[in-house]
Design a protein that fits this description.
By secondary structure, the protein is mainly α. Helices cover about 70% and strands about 0% of the residues. About 30% of the residues are buried.
Length: about 260
């Protein structure tokens, strides 16, 4: 357990401490420890807020979420191990609340439009996600789009598609598997595409391959190059960690139905 420093002279280098140690210090009242957590995670937090559709409110969402977590820590509650995961969950909840509030305030004289705003998916953050899935889907080759649409949307069986695709039922299943994997990787690329920052050339090249790295489809010399870049670029590491978070939930998000 990390002991609280007695004065500035024996205070540890906060940048060298792990998140768990910084959380312990912040919970015990060391303001600089929480500032270090903010510096470490605010970049990824802003990206997540923008990806959740909070383009104009990203700063407010991030500030409010950090403040909420700090308040919990000061009360002896909040995260015990994974600060980043706890913060991201807080950001998602605050974004959902704001998104739901915006939906309720949309003026309309069309009863059908009003009814459509309040349904079984009300409050879910599907604006960016839906657009990302559509763009990812349209980026795939036509044959892959066809098999995904027929199986995921039309709910047809591989044996029903075998003749039309000139494949055996097992071949249709294999094609669908490859298409789903490609859709998930393309979906991660859409998260990168939404970033408005202007990185350096080396960062642009590395980030273009991050979805494949996260999906474990990057191989050979290029994988070595990307990993080497991540060893010296903190900003790209933050983006990779964010994509890892997105990829953890991609099975539920990157679907056509």
């Amino acid at each position: 357990m990390t002991a609280r420093p007695s004065d500035d002279g024996d205070r540890p280098d906060l940048s060298e401490l792990g998140d768990a140690d910084l959380v312990d210090l912040a919970r015990s009242g060391v303001d600089d420890a929480y500032a270090a957590l903010y510096d470490r995670h605010s970049f990824a937090a802003h990206r997540l807020a923008r990806h959740l559709g909070m383009h104009e409110e990203a700063d407010d969402v991030v500030s409010e979420s950090f403040a909420q977590v700090l308040e919990l820590l000061q009360r002896g509650k909040g995260p015990l191990t994974s600060f980043r995961a706890y913060l991201f969950t807080t950001i998602r909840h605050d974004s959902a609340r704001r998104s739901k509030a915006r939906r309720r305030l949309v003026p309309s004289s069309d009863d059908a439009a009003v009814d459509s705003l309040i349904g079984p998916r009300a409050g879910q953050l599907d604006g960016f996600e839906t657009a990302a899935v559509r763009a990812a889907y349209m980026s795939l080759p036509e044959r892959w789009r066809t098999v995904l649409w027929q199986i995921e949307v039309e709910r047809r069986k591989p044996q029903e598609l075998a003749d039309a695709l000139d494949l055996s039922p097992n071949g249709v299943s294999a094609l669908a598997y490859r298409a789903r994997a490609a859709l998930r990787e393309a979906y991660l690329k859409q998260h990168l595409a939404s970033d408005t920052a202007q990185p350096s050339r080396s960062c642009r090249e590395a980030r273009a391959d991050l979805p494949a790295l996260v999906r474990r489809t990057l191989r050979g010399h290029r994988e070595v190059q990307v990993r080497a870049h991540l060893g010296v670029c903190r900003a790209c590491v933050a983006i990779r960690v964010e994509l890892e978070d997105v990829n953890a939930a991609v099975g539920g998000a990157a679907r056509l139905a």
